Amino acid sequence: MDMVPASAEPLLHMEQRQLRPSHHGGWWGLAAAALLLMLLVTVGPLRPMLFGVPLPEPVALTLLTGAQEKGAVCLDGTPPGYHLQRGSGDGSSSWHIHLQFAGTGILGSDHLQNPDFYNWNKAYVRYCDGASFSGDAEGQAQDGTILHFRGLRIYQAVIDELMENGLANATQAILTGCSAGGLATIVHCDDFSARFSHKVSVKCLVDAGFILDVKDISGQRSFRSLYGGVVHLQNVRQVLPKDCLTNKEPTECFFPAELIKSIHTPMFIVNSGYDPAQTVAEAVGDWHRGRTQGVKEVDCKYPCNPTCNSQSPL
């Protein structure tokens, strides 16, 4: 049962008196409120309503033409697809190709939030092959289902189709990708650049795709095991650098640290200086099992650990 005060009116007056700002606190409160309002107006949800900026519109999915004939199909044999948004103005001859997974920021169409790329032609290529657009093989599941590992063909066929739809006339182009798409960007960066003349500005951006071949919290090299399975199952070897394959195993050559050694196209790599998955796992595990009090002592200023830095691997 809820407790009801004997008199609600005095309580209301008391709350009003308590909330009345002091001279100094009031000015700081007004300043903070003004700053928040300014942020909401310029880059937040109020901006479209106040300035008539159109909200982002869904971009229709385009299925790859002749996917079956080209053998460029998803794992289940269905056609892959991409979303194509045409550019405008001085961005009509500039192209941005993004390989899924994820994708925000430079894909936006708001000129204030994305001033350098907002009006470019944008193609968002869906991920459906399971090997960073790099495999070319066929397998069979235990229940007899045929699995199509055709990521390489998908990448090639989609880029070919985009070239026919205006990409070939680009004056500048950028290939980007996040996570699995980031690894794909590293793999295909030079191939993408080779499709254009030397007069065209071509660059690549890798977001969270620089996977490291290091031991995880369990002391195992889980990614090496994972990559090894993918490389052999999906026949990824054919896209790996030949100079690396002469000295090392294909699995090792699929890691970005080896891939970037043979890349000539300008590339910008964005990767976190910390591994949040591992740091959270360690912290929670230590706390739960009472192994250390170190979790309570992490109060130093960023970057805290002097061995970590925010520099790109390149």
UniProtKB/TrEMBL annotation:
GO terms for molecular function: hydrolase activity. GO terms for biological process: cell wall organization. Gene3D superfamilies: alpha/beta hydrolase. It is found in: Secreted, Cell wall. Its EC number is 3.1.1.-. It is an enzyme of class 3 (hydrolase). Keywords: Cell wall, Cell wall biogenesis/degradation, Hydrolase, Membrane, Secreted, Transmembrane, Transmembrane helix. InterPro entries: AB_hydrolase_fold, PAE/NOTUM. The chain crosses the membrane at residues 27-46. SUPFAM superfamilies: alpha/beta-Hydrolases. Its main location: secreted. Belongs to the pectinacetylesterase family. Hydrolyzes acetyl esters in homogalacturonan regions of pectin. In type I primary cell wall, galacturonic acid residues of pectin can be acetylated at the O-2 and O-3 positions. Decreasing the degree of acetylation of pectin gels in vitro alters their physical properties. This is Pectin acetylesterase. It comes from Triticum turgidum subsp. durum (Durum wheat).
